Amino acid sequence: MDEIENNEEMPQPSLPKGSVQGDVRSMAFFAELVMKLGTSTKTNAKLDAMVEFFSSADDKDKVWVIALFSGRRPKRAVNTTQLANWCVEAVGLPFWLFEESYHTVGDLAETIALLLPEHDPEQSSPHPLHYYIEQLIAIEKETEQVKKRFILHSWHEMNSAERFVFNKLITGAFRIGVSQGLMVNALAKTANTAPSVIAHHISGNWDPSTISFTELVSDQAIAADYSKPYPFFLAYALEDEPSSLGNPEEWQVEWKWDGIRGQIIKRNDELYVWSRGEELMTEKFPEYQTLKDALPNGIVIDGEIIPSIDQKPLPFALLQTRIGRKNVTKKQLQEAPIAFFAYDLLEYEGIDWRNKPLEERRNQLEEFVTSLNHPTLLISPVIPFDNWDELGRLKESSREMGAEGFMLKRKTSQYLTGRKRGDWWKWKIDPLTIDAVMVYAQKGAGRRSNLYTDYTFAVRDGDKLVTFTKAYSGLTDQEFTQVDAFVKKNSLEKFGPVRTVKPELVFEIAFEGIAASNRHKSGVALRFPRISRWRHDKKVDEINTLEDLRKMLEVYGK
């Protein structure tokens, strides 16, 4: 049953039409929202659907939808193996047939919703969304029998669409093509408030079980939460030459470090460290505790969480040895000590500085960090240059510096919310590439659940092929369809959902970094691997070798 455990993307479900009709206090109203968001391809249609929901739904349901769509899913009360077994028992299927159905559909929540017998199409659950979430929280530590009784009763009183979203509450996040920005815009229209204000209100460490909708979207949430971070300002990739940005004197250039973007906050004598993904990471990096007494109250610094020795960044692979560990060993603290490379000053002496120009924020930041002189808080240097051609030549040394390229920031820019065009750009170096052959294929998730779109690749090692990475992005829909047809015609063996295929299709794999790994047969692990192009012009005997990977590790792996 290991293959049932998954973290699927939300599919565009093929559930019965017209099965989602209910009043604004029922589960059906939330199911209707999910169906609209999952099937619409137009941003305005998604925005209208969310505005309608936030304007009409029960206030507790609004809070939980904000939580779910921003990644604050309640702790899983029932595992996917239990769900699968209870569904098999309820419908009287042999388990092998359930698994085949799941592999075809590609999404566990939808598979169960489709297999369970349908009720009267007009029948809907009488309970709202928050009722089911509260019950799932309540049964978390109950016996399996109690959990089973609740799940079966809930399935019994729901139609297919409601079962689908109910199952999703249990199995995974609601990743349905709705960005945080879209949700913020919908809330802003509903509350008649600026999106930047809403984005700040719903950030941070709030509890959907206890906070009210009014508290969440008002200034009460900020006043009551000293830990609350500011929404991050994000950059777009620079697509033109940097000369298109005009006078180079108007721009500040910094290294684009390869770490975890974060904010360090000191308020009310407490220190908080947030990641860009809004994960509170204070306890994961004990090095930062020394800043608790060193920093003054009322300060927020934006920067990068990076392993560093002698004020120089270390490879991201060392940071990965620290992520996700509850207890950090003395050896890890010595081998991968964590520093904070400061980019920007967002709050100073308790005053929000985001509307001040970057140049003013930067000058104050440099003055503060220099006067503090703390080994864990470092200033990310500004790169001096006279013209764009000179900067282009400097960019080629990015990997030697442990960077991914440059950040270009207009000196007059304010610190905005989210991804905006015009003032901040990332100018990255070209990725590393290697040619490899596809040897395994698996069906994707969501809208690709009927196509083989997840691939495993290998390089040559003498007469053998050695697998070294997986990738599932980078091809067009047409190319995915062509590869899918090849897999179905050229499958050699079947291992559950995985197919071994004839090693004939060659692809160029792009990646951002390479590190040594004891967990992989090849001895290497790639950072952000993806397909950059299908090499129709190459044959299998022309692909790269394991020795080529090892040489890249020597040069770029540090």
TrEMBL record:
<dbReference type="InterPro" id="IPR036599">
    <property type="entry name" value="DNA_ligase_N_sf"/>
</dbReference>
<keyword id="KW-0479">Metal-binding</keyword>
<dbReference type="InterPro" id="IPR016059">
    <property type="entry name" value="DNA_ligase_ATP-dep_CS"/>
</dbReference>
<dbReference type="GO" id="GO:0006260">
    <property type="term" value="P:DNA replication"/>
</dbReference>
<keyword id="KW-0131">Cell cycle</keyword>
<dbReference type="GO" id="GO:0003677">
    <property type="term" value="F:DNA binding"/>
</dbReference>
<feature type="domain" description="ATP-dependent DNA ligase family profile">
    <location>
        <begin position="331"/>
        <end position="461"/>
    </location>
</feature>
<dbReference type="InterPro" id="IPR012340">
    <property type="entry name" value="NA-bd_OB-fold"/>
</dbReference>
<keyword id="KW-0460">Magnesium</keyword>
<dbReference type="GO" id="GO:0006310">
    <property type="term" value="P:DNA recombination"/>
</dbReference>
<dbReference type="InterPro" id="IPR012309">
    <property type="entry name" value="DNA_ligase_ATP-dep_C"/>
</dbReference>
<keyword id="KW-0227">DNA damage</keyword>
<dbReference type="InterPro" id="IPR050191">
    <property type="entry name" value="ATP-dep_DNA_ligase"/>
</dbReference>
<keyword id="KW-0436">Ligase</keyword>
<dbReference type="Pfam" id="PF01068">
    <property type="entry name" value="DNA_ligase_A_M"/>
</dbReference>
<dbReference type="InterPro" id="IPR026333">
    <property type="entry name" value="ATP_dep_DNA_lig_pp_1105_fam"/>
</dbReference>
<dbReference type="Pfam" id="PF04679">
    <property type="entry name" value="DNA_ligase_A_C"/>
</dbReference>
<keyword id="KW-0547">Nucleotide-binding</keyword>
<dbReference type="GO" id="GO:0051301">
    <property type="term" value="P:cell division"/>
</dbReference>
<dbReference type="InterPro" id="IPR012308">
    <property type="entry name" value="DNA_ligase_ATP-dep_N"/>
</dbReference>
<dbReference type="Pfam" id="PF04675">
    <property type="entry name" value="DNA_ligase_A_N"/>
</dbReference>
<dbReference type="GO" id="GO:0003910">
    <property type="term" value="F:DNA ligase (ATP) activity"/>
</dbReference>
<dbReference type="GO" id="GO:0005524">
    <property type="term" value="F:ATP binding"/>
</dbReference>
<dbReference type="InterPro" id="IPR012310">
    <property type="entry name" value="DNA_ligase_ATP-dep_cent"/>
</dbReference>
<dbReference type="GO" id="GO:0046872">
    <property type="term" value="F:metal ion binding"/>
</dbReference>
<protein>
    <recommendedName>
        <fullName>DNA ligase (ATP)</fullName>
        <ecNumber>6.5.1.1</ecNumber>
    </recommendedName>
</protein>
<keyword id="KW-0132">Cell division</keyword>
<dbReference type="GO" id="GO:0006281">
    <property type="term" value="P:DNA repair"/>
</dbReference>
<feature type="region of interest" description="Disordered">
    <location>
        <begin position="1"/>
        <end position="20"/>
    </location>
</feature>
<keyword id="KW-0067">ATP-binding</keyword>
<keyword id="KW-0233">DNA recombination</keyword>
<keyword id="KW-0234">DNA repair</keyword>
<keyword id="KW-0235">DNA replication</keyword>
